Amino acid sequence: MSQIIAGIYEIQRQIGSGGGGIVYLGRHLRLEKQVVLKADRRTLDTRPEVLRREVDMLKGLSHRYIPQVYDFVQEDGVVYTVMDFIEGESFDKLLGRGLLPSQPQIIKWACQLLEALSYLHSRPPYGILHGDIKPANIMLRPDGDICLIDYNIALALGENGAVKAGFSRGYASPEHYGADENNQSRNPAVRISNRKTPQVSMTETIKAAETTQTLGKKVPETECAAGHFSSSGVSSKNGGYAVMLDVRSDIYSLGATLYHLLSGHRPAQNAKDVTPLGADVCSPEVAAIIRKAMEPAPDMRFQSAEEMINAFLQLHRSDRRVIRHRRRMAVSAVLLTMVFLIGGICCFTGLKQMEQRQAALTLAEYSADSLAVGNVTDAVNKALQAIPSGRSIFEAPVTSQAQRALTEALGVYDLSDGFKALKTIDLPSAPLKIEISPQGSCLAAVYAYEVALFDLDNQKRLVTLPIQKSALADVLFLNENEILYAGVDGVTAFDLETLSVRWTGEVAATLAVSGNRAIAAAVNTDRDCAVLYRVSDGCIIGEKDFKGRYLPAAANDIFADPGGVVFSLNEDGSMLAASFSDGGLTLFNLENPEEDLIIYEESDYIHFEGGFCGQYFAFAADKSGESIFGLVDIAESVYMNGYSSRNNLLLHADEQGIYLSDGNLLVRFDAQTLEETEMAYTENVNITAFSVDNGYVLAATEDNCFSFYDSGANLMSTESCNENCDFVVLAGNYAVVGNRNEPALRLLKLENHSAAQLLSYDARYPHDEARISQNGQTAMLFSYQGFRIYNMDGELLAEAELPDKEQIYDQQFIKNTDGSWLEVTWYDGAKRCYSAADGFLISEEAGEAPSKDLYEEFYTQQYRIASSLHGAPEVYDLESGRLVAVLEEDAYLTYVTQVENYIITEYISAAGERYGLLLNDNFEVLAYLPGLCDVKEGMLVFDYESGNLRQCRLYSLGELLALGETLK
């Protein structure tokens, strides 16, 4: 049986153990998120209020190379620290298998570790020490980066009041053993004293402060006020002195860890006995850095993580092998210049171009990676860096990969309407909540103890405001320029135009605002009543007593807000809906308490969602394996309708409507007629979150994807993420997507390309292809079922069904100087041609049955392209007959068109999607052309099957560069 801790964490299995405690893999029951719980059975010997300050500080840490600490709980005499689960393998396991990383790889990891230490050591007020850096406490993630684990509150856990800082022999500094090597420095004249107040372990600061209260005068030369200490140390219980640890202790441990990674051997316990690393292990310059980090005397070491990281960053300048290589290269260059001047220049030019070409390929890949996560600005910048300026003979020609990266980052050939990636908004830590203003001009992102407000039109941060130290802390938009948020001093109304506080109320975390934005309600987790405010001036206009009942709250409200709580006001603020920890759900009449509506006095439902829509209140509730939906007519005090489902029901209700998702279906529910209108259908995956605005739907699904739907419930686009999309919001022209694990948000913007419209057609008509006639006066939409012909004003001219459609072998749209027509071939050899002008049958003939391999040939001015059903298209030179290229092999080639020096190929994928590729004269891909259906007089025509044919011209590289510069 699994063990439940604090009612919210489930211990699944043990994954490690050591002197500091036992480490378990667990999960957060409400959030279904994996966590690590470290259990320590030592006696807790620190005053609770002091320990709580330390825990809160640890919870506020957020850095990419350290895990997030979420909670600290005690149960049955065991103290648990709850933190991120880091996927990967610890370095001690790598070393145990005899694996020794390369020097460049170790330098990369060393810089990452130093970044993490610099962050920890700089935390206010006096810095935080890790205290036990060793290979076992460094995780190698699957992406190749590291994570420094096991920094926590272990030092606060002592026995019988003693401070026992754990350490690992061989990695611990002399100070860990109580030695003061500074007094025995080999060069007493050299003592670095320009540091600020000594940075000490936060736990030792607290413990030493407590010790002074009991030992009194036994702590000489130590300034205990506010936790300041002299570098000499603090008194021990036997009247002696214990050397205090500081940032240089972590520097030593890191140096010892790097020593082990480079040599394969743990360094000696005594710092003076450590054998220096030889040239057979690493370069002398790296060995010198390790030696300095492991100096026995702290004053002789690097004095900060920043100083040590700078030493690594300067290696390329000081490495003797690099210097010797440069000298050899210089001598060789002189000799070559003297003997083979022209050949030397050519060779040098070729090498430089080769280096630049490789760099361009790498930058193009980085650009594609940035685009994949929605960071368009970064994708454009990296693509621009991949393209040489053209001002030097040493520059290589522009690679096709670089031009394709820039083209795709700019999106010039995607003319579909919809929400397109705009930018990634980075946050200091992973978001807890996100909200967007009603018209979509402003974004509020809540993360660890702050809310940041962004202007979405220019993606600039407007202001950052401190909030309560709780993931339950709400922020609500009153309008485009005002917010209401759970500030540290109380409920706060803030003006975003003047960046000033309008008013502040009592402390509360959970907020609600009436539909007319006139009344606000606020409640804190430890109170059984809600306070009502007048929004205009913050005046308290009343309270609603819950009579000993409380809103549900997680045991740890720092970790994340699991939701599942109803706290909502109706349009005019006269009704307040609230759900309670006992499963109750009540609609409070704030004007006449005798007319309160009790939906559930109490129940075993654990998760509620609900809201008001006019005179109706809609709600959803769930418990293990069962969910229900209910609708209440408030005016008539009648429970109107409801049903149950085995899926997790999601509901959003406001004055705009009632929206309910059940599994893979999202509907709009009409409260008066009880009719349902489909808004989104997600095939075989369930919806996990959604947002609706102005007819558009943004839906997240359990396969880590998010999709947009138009007002007709038609799928517009789908994108995938690395994590589940916990947060999706949509308003105005913007949409935002994020998750609880990544400190970044995807920003998308609604794009409209009506200016590129060629013609409109009935989107309900199914077809496989769309082609423009030779004279440009009509468009034919066709499939094996039949065809339609439209003029360029969108008027339907003709429609026909094809006979014996099950026996059709192939269709080809032909256009040349003689006109345009649809050529249809049947398996029996019959061939019929239909006019693209009016649809009339213009010819019919019988012939031999065609080959079933669908072999076709296409011709350009210089090449013949041979294509069969089961092989990749092959390109042959017309003059020599030589095979020069092989084209796309994962799709079926349908057309080939030459436009100036470009070749455009059109394909149908295995999934039935049409697309094109823009190729240069070497058949390298310059651009991907989604939805391409035709090429007309050098113009590209796209069919998005949404009732629109659109066109655009080909963009030159110069035009692409100019567009890219505008987005930098």
Question: Can I get a quick summary?
Answer:
By secondary structure, the protein is α+β, with helices and mostly antiparallel strands.
What does this molecule look like?
The chain is an alpha+beta fold. α5 (247-263) packs antiparallel against α6 and α11 (376-385) runs antiparallel to α12. Residues 153-165 and 185-242 have low confidence and may be disordered. It contains 13 helices and 63 strands. It is globular. Strands 1-2-3-4-6-5 form a 6-stranded antiparallel beta sheet. Strands 12-43-42-41 form a 4-stranded antiparallel beta sheet. Strands 13-14-15-16 form a 4-stranded antiparallel beta sheet, with no helix packed on it. A hairpin with a 7-residue loop joins β27 (585-589) and β28 (597-600). It folds into 4 domains: 3-186 and 194-315, Orthogonal Bundle (Transferase(Phosphotransferase), domain 1); 340-410; 467-585, Methylamine Dehydrogenase, Chain H (7 Propeller), CATH 2.130.10.10; 757-967, no CATH class. Belongs to the protein kinase superfamily. NEK Ser/Thr protein kinase family. NIMA subfamily. ATP binds at residue 38. InterPro entries: Kinase-like_dom_sf (IPR011009), NEK_Ser/Thr_kinase (IPR050660), Prot_kinase_dom (IPR000719), Protein_kinase_ATP_BS (IPR017441), Quinoprotein_ADH-like_sf (IPR011047), Ser/Thr_kinase_AS (IPR008271), WD40/YVTN_repeat-like_dom_sf (IPR015943).
